[in-house]
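Re: that chain you flagged

S.,

Sorry for the slow reply, it's been a week of failed gels. I finally had a moment to sit down with the sequence you sent. For the record, here it is as I used it:
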Amino acid sequence: MRSDILNQNSLSSAGTLAKVREVTATETLTQADSGMILALNSASAVVVTLPTDANCEVGCNYLFIVQTTNDSAYTIKTGDDADSGGDDFVGGVQLSSTTAGFGHAVVAAANDYEIVLDGNLADTGGEKGSWVSVLKISSNEWMIRGNVYSDDADSDGTALFTNS
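Prediction finished late last night. Pasting the structure tokens below so you have them in one place:
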């Protein structure tokens, strides 16, 4: 029989379950939530705020999965939303149309600190199955990656990242 140490080192994950939590209302995440898979499941507007620098170390990470398409928007925002000098997103996502068979790479612009996943807003996406992963990579930056699905046949993703 293998020891637990050997199992951990051999990347065996038998019996290990991911930490999953359903998000149905607005909330602020903490570092204790790091590594969590957050299933977005609401028909109402939901805002999820990431921790501030003081409350989250580099390496803090979250995975958001759209479980229910929301026409009122899931907004994921950084804890410090100052337009200049606050926390910003870097990186981007793949945006694919569920109706037209096209895709775009959408990259966050300088000072973007919100991700808007909305099922019926033009030029964004957020259909069921969309996912976004965020990783704290420095004191003022969160790396983002993911796949976002849209039923907007000509969505270009310009409303996906904002700094409003």
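What I noticed first: The two ends are 57 Å apart (CA to CA).

Talk soon,
D.
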